[in-house]
Amino acid sequence: MRRLIKISLQKPELAAALLLLCLIIFFQVMSQGVFLSLANMRGVFGLMPEMALVAIGVTLLMICGEFDLSVGSVFALSPMAMAVLMTMGWGFWPAMLTGLLVCAAIGFINGWLTIKFAIPSFITTLGMLFMARSLTIVISGGFPPRLKADEIPMWLFVEFVGPGNLFRASFLWFVGIAVLVALLLSKTNFGNWVRATGGFLPAANAMGIPSSKVKIACFMICSVLAGLAGTIQVLRLGSPLPSIGEGLELAAVAAAVIGGTSLLGGIGSITGGIIGAILIRVIDNGMVLSQVNSNWFKFAIGALTILAVVGNSWLRKRGRAMKVETV
Amino acid sequence: MSAGVAANGEQPIISVRNLHKWYSGVHALKGVSLDFKRNEAVGLVGDNGAGKSTLISILAGLHPKDEGEIFVEGRPAEINKPRDAMNLGIETIYQYNSMVPNMSIARNMFIGREPMKAAFMGVGLLDEARMRAESVAAIANVDLHLRSPDALVGELSGGQRQGVAIARAMHFKSKVMILDEPTNHLSVKETTKVIGFVKSLKEQNVTGIFISHNMHHVFACCDRVVAMALGKVVLDKPISETSIEEVHDVL
Ligand SMILES: Nc1ncnc2c1ncn2[C@@H]1O[C@H](COP(=O)(O)OP(=O)(O)OP(=O)(O)O)[C@@H](O)[C@H]1O
Ligand SMILES: [Mg+2]
Questions:
Q1: Of A188, A204, A325, which has the smallest distance from its Cβ to B147's Cβ?
Q2: Helix (H) or strand (E) holding B45
Q3: Nearest ligand, CA of residue B51?
Q4: pLDDT recorded at residue A1
Q5: Which residue of A323, B4, B24, B170 lies most exposed, with the fewest beta carbons within 10 A?
Q6: How crowded is residue B196: how many other Cβ atoms within 10 Å of its Cβ?
Q7: Range of the domain at A242
Q8: Helix, strand, coil % (nearest 5) of chain B?
């Protein structure tokens, strides 16, 4: 029993999940039952995949010991590239895949620059944040092209599916990718290398792990997921605005941190990042329903982020100090 | 002098010839030539900054050499990365621990050499059951008693960590085991254990290179002592033909 408590104390995503549960109950009561209604859940589930996909990539990268501030801009650039290519007569699939390739290239550049010149990824990706955003606006030519819905398999991305039309197709993408990345991190040798690279780089290098390649791969996965998320949002909205995704990079970091990912690398889980993203969505939606002045939203997220870091380090210490049989 | 065959006709397992290493401005190794005989335990001593860690990090593939040659079992060896050294049978236990604190013992044992159930293009599903079972066996083999292979390395004592590092090196059946100051920060009891371990390497047909600042430790478990100062070898004698005083005098 004590061992079980010890293990759970060291799993910060459990604390976040518990908090999520409390908040759901709280908002359900505060909104007089509207929060968990089918109509509202459809809204929550419809928007959630977009941010959660970004959070998955950012979490993976943070566990690897790096940062990506450019995800918000990449989120806008990828669908913009797709839309522009489509107005030039490209088909949906080649245009969309090219958009994602652009993201992969940006991820590669982020990683390569960071490693080659041994600079903090904070700086590299801050630069990329501005450059990718600027590129988005430049290629949009000032006014966003409209998407021709009849050329796009909307059912595959954003149409409602499932019982009571509860989910959009994007939710299935999200679930599939979440499971895939979570398995990649926890059950494969690549995941082992990611955790070792972020956990203690000298050890990873001494044991012969190709840590630079591992990092670059994580940068690329992070970027591509951000691009896919942006594409899904644009398909939902019907038009690629050059301003979408602004501030998303920080929200994604907040989601990862709320879910128990350490800024120093090596610690965290994909589940945690997803729970963090859901928490943020739930707070946003719940506050609106509870008719709280929505300007308090950012305050709540900020407070929660700080609380999560302080709380997690406390929990971890307690968990560690807790004596079970000696190892 | 050629790296081929030593005076007594036995081929050394590792020979280095005229090894040089510069760290930007610092000339850390100034033409080091050494032979390590098969199944011999060699103590490598020297003051701080003498170049001991630099020498072994070249043998371990962590740093590239700038000049000189390395022969393993008589053949010229290119050791460009840690994997090259591992593949040649050289395992290293580093002065600054080569374990990831936030990962379990079983995961740490197999970093970079994970057993897999199935793999595609180098990425595959870990065989976790095998990792656990083999870590338990490897740890028991070095006479260490740990309750669970799932415990985080960060929760172990310094001695236990060193024990896991040794178990890892032994598990991969190395021919040469390099230990860079493995007795640092260890209790008397744990130190005794490590020294016993270095002694026992011979019975397992493993060559040991043992770095320490403590002459008594070296004289307790090695066959030969090599002293380095300022990037050069200044003494190289069998333990039976020298004394702690003589080694102290050349340093
Ligand atoms: N990564 C590095 N970058 C720059 N200089 C280094 C590096 N590693 C070692 N040196 C320098 O090379 C020289 C030899 O260092 P080395 O670590 O090999 O000594 P050592 O004999 O292992 O000493 P100690 O007993 O303190 O571990 C020192 O002058 C040191 O400052
Ligand atoms: Mg040293």
A1: A325
A2: strand B41-46
A3: 1
A4: 66
A5: B24
A6: 12
A7: 10-315
A8: 35, 30, 40
Output the 3-class SS for B97-113. CCCCCCCEHHHHHCCCC
Is B101's CB within 8 Å of A267's CB? no
For ligand 2, the distance from its centroid to the CA atom of residue A119, given in whole angstroms, is: 27
User: Looking at the DSSP assignment, which residues form a beta bridge with residue B30?
Assistant: B20
Contact assignment for A266 to B100 by CB distance below 8 Å: yes
Domains of chain B: 1-89+174-251 (3.40.50.300), 101-172 (no CATH)
Residue nearest to atom 31 of ligand 1 (CA): B49
Residue A50 belongs to a domain with what CATH number? Answer: 1.10.3470
Provide the number of structural domains found in chain A: 1
Mean pLDDT of B219-236: 92
Strands B207-211 and B224-229: unpaired
CA dist., res. A91 & res. B80, Å (int): 47
Q: Quickly list DSSP for B168-221.
A: HHHHTT-SEEEEESTTTT--HHHHHHHHHHHHHTGGGT-EEEEE-S-HHHHHHH
Cα separation of B237 and B247, whole Å?
Answer: 10
A1 domain residue, yes or no: no
The ipTM is 0.87
What six digits make up the tokens of A253? Answer: 């970091």
The atom of ligand 1 lying closest to the CA of B46 is 21
Nearest CA-CA distance, residue A306 and chain B, Å: 22
Q: Residues near A42 by Cβ (< 8 Å), separated by ≥ 6?
A: A160, A165, A166, A167
Q: Which of B24, B52, B56, B96 to mutate to test the pocket of ligand 1 (most atoms within 8 A of CB)?
A: B52
At A316 the three-state DSSP class reads helix
* Nearest to B72, CA basis, from B90, B58, B54, B56: B90
The whole-angstrom separation of Cα B195 and Cα B208 is 11
CA–CA dist A256, A265 (Å, integer): 11
Paired residues of B76 in beta bridges: B71
Token pair in block for residue A84: 């522009």
Share the mean pLDDT of chain B.
Answer: 88
pLDDT tens, position by position, B153-210 = 988 888 888 889 989 988 987 899 999 988 887 888 888 888 888 888 888 889 999 9
